[in-house]
């Protein structure tokens, strides 16, 4: 029987099916890590190593993967009262935990007049629920060893700050997750994949994504939720093909699913079968023909903007200019120079929250022009509401694939930007990636925002696609 670990807890919060696969499959069945995933993992390891070296930690010594010996060595260190333990081994019944750090704190326990609490080192800038529940899992194992539940747990974030929390506040949620993991360990069939934002970066994506496509799973539909999928399946609508022509008679027949939501989901199923976005009817007052597109490549770990690019006008053949700030202090002036080179009042199209969030963080300490922020227009929001897409979309890469039929990573993965910055050809690669992303954004503007509304799909065409999805057009 495979032991439940902190990694399973962490994975479950992200995706129950990911945790289920990890409980049943060997590591050899995962796809190999990509270059940028290896870079991010190494960065995390290096950060943890650098942090713990300053603490004077002690690490239990035991033969590799002999966790029983590791648990015994850990127990000895805790009984001896060492101040810090790195990579302790905690075991109880069917659970195994390898927390980053245990810290000695006052208060009697089975160990003596002291006990320990758990800290985990993370490279994120703020605490997340999956990280907290992982610490709670370790805290429960520690409590069984020392005979006392630690009052607090903590996450050590990338700036060295300790984000402390009360373990008791999360015990009920932690117990629910462990119970769910035991059920999944007993039956892999109790879990199913669901297309979500993290799927493209998951090491099981080559297993789950083809499975979803084979089944015509409802999670492929733009706008689908777990709850809506369950309601539709309960109402007898089992896949995308059936959803495209699903016309229930009354609220009970549709599982009391909101009628407006059902119409939009049905339209998403039609888009899937037809293989193209269905552009919605909407006001057309703003066409942004004279707009510019601004795009950033950043290093979230270092809180740095590595490259800023502008395409003006917002067409694929528009003039491309960019700046590669050498240091954080150069970022603000780099954006100012790029914007000042544009005609005054030019709308500044961007994708997502990266640009406005960065601008807001820096504006208070800078000579900021409020008029610049007023010119920001979020393409992500506009694109999301302008059409129903042939599959669920979560970011720029999804939109590029399903609307333009292009490889959004042809110039590299944005997660590699930090690695490129230190490479001999880094500047060239950053410029190439910026230009490719800007051209994709310009093409999406034309293909969706500037396009005429799609006529209501001919019922016969959709019916034909429903009977033979392979025959549906894919353009």
Number of strands: 15
Strand coverage percent: 15-25%
Q: At CATH's second level, what is the architecture of the largest domain? A: Alpha-Beta Complex
Strand count, sense and barrel status of the largest sheet are: 5 strands, mixed
- Rg computed from alpha carbons, rounded to a whole number of angstroms: 26 Å
Structural write-up:
The chain has helices at residues 6-14, 16-24, 35-53, 67-80, 129-146, 171-186, 205-215, 226-234, 240-244, 259-274, 331-340, 354-363, 370-374, 379-386, 396-404, 417-421, 426-449, 459-467, and strands at 4-5, 84-86, 90-92, 95-97, 101-109, 112-121, 152-156, 162-166, 278-279, 292-299, 304-312, 319-323, 348-350, 376-378, 387-388. The chain has 3 domains: 4-190, Lambda Exonuclease, Chain A (Alpha-Beta Complex), CATH 3.90.320; 197-276; 292-449, Nucleotidyltransferase, domain 5. It is globular, with a radius of gyration of 26 Å. The two termini are 48 Å apart. Helix content is 43%, strand content 15%. The strands form 4 sheets. The chain has a 5-stranded mixed beta sheet. The protein is α/β, with parallel strands linked by helices and 475 residues long.
What are the SSEs and their pairings?
Layout lengths: L3 E2 H9 L1 H9 L10 H19 L13 H14 L3 E3 L3 E3 L2 E3 L3 E9 L2 E10 L7 H18 L5 E5 L5 E5 L4 H16 L18 H11 L10 H9 L5 H5 L14 H16 L3 E2 L12 E8 L4 E9 L6 E5 L7 H10 L7 E3 L3 H10 L6 H5 L1 E3 H8 E2 L7 H9 L12 H5 L4 H24 L9 H9 L8
Parallel strand pairs: 1-4, 6-7, 10-13, 13-14
Antiparallel strand pairs: 2-5, 3-4, 5-6, 7-8, 9-15, 10-11, 11-12
Helix pairs in contact: 1-2, 1-5, 1-6, 5-6, 14-17, 15-17
